[in-house]
Amino acid sequence: MGNSFLSVLKRLEHEPQLSDLKRILSPLTPKEEQDLFRYAYHIKSREVGRIVYFRGIIEFSNICTKDCYYCGIRKSNSNVTRYELTDEEILREARWCHDNHYGSLVLQSGERSDAAFVDKIERLLIKIKDLSQGRLGITLSVGEQSLETYKRWFEAGAHRYLLRIETSNPALYSKIHPAGHSWEKRKQCLHSLRDSGYQVGTGFLIGVPGQTIDDMAGDVLFLKEADADMVGMGPYIPHNQTPLFSETAGFDPVRQLSLGLKMIAAVRIVMKDINIAATTALQALSPTGREMGLRAGANIIMPNVTDLAYRTGYQLYQNKPGMDENAFVQRQNLEKTVRALGEEVHYDAWGDSPHFHNRLKNHDPSS
Ligand code: SAH
Fold first, then answer.
1. Which terminus of the chain has fewer Cβ atoms in its 10 Å neighbourhood, N or C?
2. Cα distance between residue 284 and residue 318, in whole Å
3. Which residues form the pocket of ligand 1, taking CB atoms under 6 Å from any ligand atom?
4. Across 226-250, average pLDDT
């Protein structure tokens, strides 16, 4: 095959290589960029359909034991007022998701692994399953835990888990985290999640200081190797109360958005039948960022259903959008957006990735 842009895209689809990934993640002409997104959209339409699933996200606590250099709610940021929603508040928001036909929700928070936290999650899982007669699907995104904890939560009703590896490059990982935060441990957690039966999602910070095009190309191949079922990734956005802020002098939002979209397209072309989220960080860079994400190949949106009173407390980065857009208004706006793209929102469904079911079929000789 030659080296025309189309042949690069075809090779990516059939035998992904680092060099071709680097080619598409490097600056492109407007025409090439358009061809890339069209190609990815074609694969999305074929593999997962022109259907969007909503997962209501409840950011139930910003209390965190981690100290990641990029994150606004890191333990050492003493400017943050810490909060934790009560069980009743969380259940009210879960019920809202169910009443509004979101087939599933995501529980996300800062990272803790103490017994009170582990018990709380288990209790909530059981109650959420109960209030929806088992119908609401539940994704957890609460960080690194022991195999035993992952198993307990799976038993209690969680069936998907998001844990971003943040970067596939261990050396870069150690530059953006303090000592004691371990890339190997995080990777091990992805294995434990898989072994516990979850559909496993991972992802990256895109365009974080110190990251090269090689690193990002490696990130896409990491997903292939990890055989991920879902991906949540988004452009890095600075927060002025974090150590990494001092390295963001040349921050270029236009480049970040473009990189974020190109990563979505690359992941769609390489991974094909997985779920890919159009994340809020895209919207932070452009009011239509999430639509652009859907056009580049994403098929999941996670509308924020957290009570407005708590939203300012969960600013992982600055200028996070949706601080005053309540869950109801957001649902209406998003639905309009999806329709305008000629796509449909699929309500009342878990919306598992076809990849997960294909993976089970392939591994179970009896089916
Ligand atoms: N603590 C949980 C999840 C909450 S943070 C966990 O460890 O899994 C969710 C994600 O927000 C992180 O994985 C990180 O990739 C992203 N994030 C944090 N700071 C960010 C920033 N400054 N810009 C963009 N994304 C950020």
1. C
2. 9
3. 70-71, 108, 110-111, 141-143, 163-164, 166, 205, 234, 236-237, 239, 281, 316-317
4. 97
